Amino acid sequence: MTGALLPAAAAVVLLIGGATGRLTGPGWDVARWAVSGVALVVLLAGLAVAAVVAGAKPAVTPTVELTKASAPDLYRLVGDLAERLDVPVPSAIALTPDCDSWLEERAHPASRPTPRAGLPKPPAAESIRGGPTAPVLVIGSPFLWWMRVAELRAVLAPVVAGTGPAAHPDIAAARRFVRGLDAAVATAAAPGRGMAGRLALAPLGRISRVLLGACREHITQLERGVAAASSERAQAVDYGLRIVAQEQVGLAYAGWDRLLTRVALPAWRMGRWPSRLDVGVVSALTELSRRDRLADGFTSRLGERPACDLLEEPGVVDEAASLLAARLFHGGPATPGPDWSPVDWQEYPEEVVDRKWRTEAARLHRVLDALGAHSGSEGPGRAGTTGTSPTLARVMDHLAAEPLALTGAPGPDDGRLDEERTDALAAGITAEAAREEALATPPEPVALGDGHELWEGGTWDEGPLPVFPIQPPRTGRDLLADHVTAMVCCAAVDTAGAAPGLDWLDGPALLVEGKRRSDLTGPVLSLVEDGDPVPLRGWLASVGVRPEKPVRLV
Predict the structure, then answer these.
(1) Given pLDDT bands bounded at 50, 70 and 90, which one contains residue 296?
(2) Apex 323 CA angle, 120 and 114, nearest 5
(3) 418/432 Cα distance (integer angstroms)
(4) Which tens digits make up the pLDDT trace of 325-342?
(5) For 25-79, how does the pLDDT look when each residue is reduced to its tens digit (9 = 90+)?
């Protein structure tokens, strides 16, 4: 801003010099007019940037707002914690479907949250004690369900301690200025404006970017200092317990990520959203503690009071957080509907797992039809007439080294033919899955502020946003193996009395006589990668699956 005042200062000097008779002559007159014109343009540009910065709405994280009536014990805990730390109390409390906690400034009038279905309307931003506006405390919802009350208090102590520095006038002004610059950059880059609007806002956006880059290092040092001061202040409250509670933070993050990628994502992709994700993360972490001896002993703390007991209606809050998680991480609609309905954990195996298997099995057989594969009704290893019988034998016949089964000895080109057949099937499934995904309803944008939107395929300065949860790249054969596994599971359910199930850490599971069978991956890979059906046939015989019997598809 100092640079914007320099031309004006030079113009004032030239004008005063002319008025006092010290700077006279044609040359000085030209200089006065030129510098005054430049000063006027620069001042107008500075005023325009200041107006955009002051009026732009800063980005606000979508959260589930908690009123004092819906969580009186939680508000009381935070208030007592702030009193022990001798800092201002946060103005409100909100939940985010993530394993993190922070303070968020929402003093801007347009930053006031909107109520969600099933929750009371949040009050206007004001301190819990009725004082001046303070930051909002945002808490990760998985923490409330997995952590105990004492652990949550210990973890929140450094966060709540940050309200002290946030009340300092200089720190508050610096943060407000940076948030305004960030909002101005987003406003200038927002789509949907005409040519005149884009041309008018483009210089303002560039100036805001320059200013934001110039203060980046300073604001970084400021936030580091605030974090250090808050951490030092919080050492007076539950410091020893906080060290132990940090282990629960890492464990909660691992369980939450696993639950989203393995369990929630398959449901989201078929238009269903699990309505009790936070309850699910407790089950996932309990299962992890049972399997992993490194986590042994963590479940012994489950006898203590959970932090979710601080809520009046944990089920309502969990449902709201689960819907928000589906919207943020998958781009689902903001409200339930016919094509976007909740699913309970008890219904998950039938409504999600079984449907997922049969959808993938149907896709596999559609691709086999396109490739002209035979029906497999004449038994493994025998060529039959072209048909569409949805049997597991048909899939195995296509992937197995068919000439070897007929002649008893491999020919010189049998391996190459098997590779081509498998690759063609994998490519067909990949193309079919991509086509179905392209025809699906595009995700809805999640508004964060003026010009700030978060959605699948959206863009920021760094480029396209990745799909979340981020998945490792998968080859065509990986996708083919998934579809073959789905076909095997469908055959097991329809012909051997197996049942779909839910594994909290691995997602869809096959239950045989009530027990999870986790030994299917190896036989399927032998068939897909090597064209060897023998291991899979042995597995099918052990379960009692009849591959020649048709299965039910969606």
Answers:
(1) low
(2) 35
(3) 21
(4) 999 888 888 888 888 999
(5) 788 878 888 888 888 888 887 787 778 777 777 878 899 999 999 999 999 999 9
If we measure between CA atoms, which residue out of 18, 13, 20 comes closest to residue 35?
A: 13
pLDDT of residue 386: 41
Residues 6+ apart with CB under 8 A from 249: 99, 143, 155
In tens, the pLDDT along 374-386 reads 665 444 433 333 4
Other C-beta atoms within 10 Å of 417: how many? 14
Report CA 293 to chain centroid distance, whole Å: 29
DSSP code, position 277 = H
Q: What is each CA distance from 412 to 409, 417, 418, 531, 532, in whole angstroms?
A: 10, 10, 12, 15, 17
C-beta separation of 18 from 32 below 8 A: yes
Q: Which of 73, 64, 71, 68 is nearest to 118 (CA)?
A: 64
Pairing between strand 463-464 and 459-460?
antiparallel
CA distances from 417 to 26, 222, 398, 401, 523 (A): 91, 65, 11, 8, 21
Q: Which helix (H) or strand (E) holds 102?
A: strand 101-104
CA distances from 518 to 48, 507, 511, 512, 515 (A): 64, 12, 9, 10, 9
pTM: 0.81
CB-neighbour burial class of residue 64 (10 A; exposed 0-12, middle 13-18, buried 19+): buried
Long-range contacts of 453-462 (CB under 8 A, 24+ apart): 454/328, 455/331, 456/330, 456/331
Distance in angstroms (rounded) separating the CA atoms of residues 129 and 552: 62
If 0-12 CB within 10 Å is exposed, 13-18 middle and 19+ buried, where does residue 112 land? middle
Q: Give the H/E segment covering residue 65.
A: strand 64-66
Q: Tell me the backbone φ, ψ of residue 139, rounded to 5 degrees.
A: -120, 140
- How far apart CA 364 and CA 358 sit, in angstroms, is 10
Q: What is the C-alpha to C-alpha distance for residues 534 and 311, in angstroms, rounded to an integer?
A: 55
Concatenate the DSSP letters of all residues of 495-528 into one string: HH--EEEEETTTEEEEEETTEE----HHHHHHHH
| Beta bridge pairs of residue 516 | 511
What pLDDT does 295 receive? Answer: 52
Q: End-to-end CA distance of the chain, in Å?
A: 64
